[in-house]
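From the pipeline queue, job 12 of 40. The input is one protein chain; the requested action is below.

Action: predict structure.
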Amino acid sequence: MQEQAPQWSETEKQIAREALSKAYTRETEALIAEISQKASEITEINDVWSLSDYLNAKRYDIEGKYDYRDSTPIFVLAKLIKERWLHPDELAGLTPDKRAKVAALARM
């Protein structure tokens, strides 16, 4: 028998979406700063191709990470906490059970 995914209230969905938005902004702003630095250090064409490869990998990672689906927010939120783009306090308003699951997964 499969365990059913926890139900999310509209308020909890909104909290999760806002948390994802904050984390996305932080991560993309950090990426922009990093790319600006890397671009300023380009001295040859191979540096350009390396930067292009790096950007393609980051785009794939970020687009996949922030693909919000109602069935997976606990995993996404845990990953963002683990990567330090999100702080557990930003999930205030979720049920204690959901916050505990996110915290447990973030420690893995």
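Job complete. The chain has four helices and no strands.
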